[in-house]
Structure formats: C-alpha cells, structure tokens
Amino acid sequence: MSNWYKKCMPKIKDVEPFLKDLFKEISSSNHVRGLYVWGSYASHLSNPNFRLKDIDIIARTKFHSGDLVSVNDDIIHGNYDTSYLENVGFDPSSVKFSQDFVGIKKYNIDHWALSHDRKLLHWGPILINRQESDSMKKEAEKHASDITGLNKGRVSKASENEREGWYDSYRHYINRYFADMPSGWYQVEDMKIKDILDEAVKI
Fold first, then answer.
1. pTM attached to this predicted model
2. Cβ–Cβ < 8 Å for 196, 202
C-alpha cells in the first residue's frame, strides 16, 4: 500500500484507490448509515492532480445531535466504562463511534457527522457560518503564501518540503482562531442537509 497519507497535500488520484478500504471499520458500525467525501475532494473530482489540504469525511449516523455534541476530548480519552457513561448522561454508543472515527488521524482527515435529526457537526471548533469559514480559509492561504513565497497556484508543483511549509503556515493561521476552544463535536448552523449530500460523493 502506498504511503500517500504521509505526504503533505496528496493528489486526488493518490487518495482515491484507498478510501473504501480506509473506512471499512467505521462503515461497518450499526450506527453509521453511510460515509461520504465532501469539500475540495468532491468538487475537484474531475481533476485527479488536484492537491488536497484536507480530506473531508462525513459519517451519516443514527445518533441524535445532542448525544454527539456532548462528546468531547476528555470523554473519548477518559477510558470510562459503559455503566459510568450511562450514569453521567452519555450515550456510550456515540462515545464509541466518536473514539473510532476521530481516532483516524494519520490520513489528514477533517471529521464531520450528520445526525439522525439532520444536523451537521464537525469535530473541533469551526466557524458556524460558511461564508465566514470560506473567508478565513482565503486569509489563511494568503498568510501561507506571504510566509513561504509560494502563491496558491504554485503549491501543487512545489517540493514536498515547500508544501509542508506552506501547509503548516496555513494550519497555524486557522488554528490560532480556536486555540482556547476545546475539541469536541460542534454543530454547524447554516447548512442544508440536502445541499451537503448533493455535493458529497458516497464512499
């Protein structure tokens, strides 16, 4: 198996052959209704050489949004047994799902979930308005270009080290907005589920 996941900003053609295998374990869960690739992967699928900053994966689940929003880093890393979780008001299945799904880190994945009550959630702090989110990403790209001297158009053809420098600057700019916010499921307010699924590619 190729080690594309170790590379910064892999091309779509490098990622594509492995998506189904990567998520067999998650999709086999009784609580997951489907897995989708969203974002830049889906919108640039016709360009196999397009480089991905992140791989946006949506798990369509049977969980209520409230059960997911209650799950955070402390809970998934706390090694609590089922009875304790139930006694303090958590749904153990949503905790287990979050542990398994969020535990997939080495593939540069951005974790999303669709709840049974049709809410979109993101693991980790995020701007709840898509327009603001898109604007911040453009600012981050400009910041990375200013720091590295690579404009967005040149990143694709840059060396691995140059791409890593650009991407590190890009992520640093975004992460500083959320430095004081805990990790966990955050609900996105302004997205229509039909639009999301229309844009996504099912795995």
1. 0.81
2. no
